From TrEMBL:
SUPFAM superfamilies: P-loop containing nucleoside triphosphate hydrolases. This is ABC transporter ATP-binding protein. Gene3D superfamilies: P-loop containing nucleotide triphosphate hydrolases. SMART domains: AAA (SM00382). It comes from the Bacteria. PROSITE patterns: ABC_TRANSPORTER_1 (PS00211), ABC_TRANSPORTER_2 (PS50893). Belongs to the ABC transporter superfamily.
Length: 279
């Protein structure tokens, strides 16, 4: 269980986390929010790579502000940062082995077995001896996940893990994360509402460093209930609409004349919530 209370972080006088209160439990929680909402800052506080200015994080009863407890917590978490910053000349195996050394897996034989295990878990056994610079974007992202899985962490923190992946790689990644969420706490930041709908049992929307929504993906979609329309004509005056593959216009907000109401998706609810659309 992870408890976050009254968490604050300020940059240049601007609150990026503004008194955040959250409790996170097992399963997959998705973090959505516009650019600059504070998602990465929150994840870094959870991952113990950034100290908050105020408030508290407790994960599994451990306080990352206390050095001994911080070390204990680091052993129980895996972190896939937004820019993993890999060494391009390392092989996949050596890179994960290097992180394993940093994580203090000191016994060489056990460490190598663990590196092989995590590479197999992300289906990169065949690329163990391939240099990082020769891996595709999807493979690199799976490698980033592999290093986060070292030591079987109870808490997995993934910052925009599917960014830049093609649909096939995204599906593969989704399947992996879904499996991992079965027996641990996964917190995943993303801009992909489809990933949230497909993977997460809970979604938290951050806006200006505060929780703007906390519920299920279905409940987030429900924010736009009765406000999503299909129209044969391009609607005059509507701010958000687009032409769909069947030639009709999908309109968010007030009803265009003669339009049919249609069930909302997570993206519709999110757009309504963050105020991109006014009813
Ligand atoms: N080290 C820093 N120094 C100054 N400002 C920072 C620093 N790190 C983050 N910020 C600012 O804090 C705000 C929140 O950043 P953060 O990366 O947490 O947002 P985010 O929700 O993850 O955004 P994105 O979706 O773009 O990744 C942004 O305005 C960012 O510019």
């Amino acid at each position: 269980m992870i408890e976050i209370s009254d968490l604050t972080k300020t940059y240049g006088g601007r609150p990026v986390l503004d008194g955040l209160d959250l409790t996170l439990g097992p399963g997959i929680t998705g973090l959505l929010g516009p650019n600059g909402a504070g998602k990465t800052t929150l994840l870094r506080c959870l991952a113990t790579t950034l100290a908050p200015d105020g408030g508290a994080v407790r994960a599994f009863g451990l306080d990352p502000g206390v050095p001994m407890q911080r070390t204990a917590l680091r052993r129980r978490l895996g972190y896939l940062p937004q820019d993993p910053g890999f060494y391009p000349h390392f092989t996949a195996f050596d890179l994960v082995d290097y992180v394993a050394i940093l994580k203090e897996l000191t016994d060489r034989r056990q460490r190598h077995a663990e590196v092989r295990r995590v590479l197999a878990e992300v289906e990169l056994t065949g690329q163990s001896r391939t240099k990082v610079r020769k891996l595709s974007g999807g493979m690199r992202q799976r490698l980033a996940l592999a290093q986060a899985l070292l030591g079987e962490p109870d808490l997995l923190i993934l910052d925009e893990p599917t960014v830049g992946l093609d649909p096939e790689q995204r599906m593969l990644f989704r399947a992996l994360v879904s499996r991992l969420g079965e027996d641990r706490t996964v917190v995943l930041s993303t801009h992909q509402t489809e990933d949230v709908a497909a993977l997460c049992e809970r979604v938290i929307v951050l806006r200006d460093g505060r929780v703007a929504f906390d519920g299920t993906p279905g409940e987030l979609a429900g924010v736009a209930a009765g406000q999503v329309w299909l129209s044969d004509e391009a609607p005059a005056g509507a701010r958000v609409f687009w032409r769909t593959a069947d030639g009709r216009y999908r309109v968010l907000g007030g009803p265009p004349p003669g339009a049919d109401v249609t069930p909302p998706g997570v993206e519709d609810g999110y757009l309504m919530l963050i105020g991109e659309v006014t009813a």
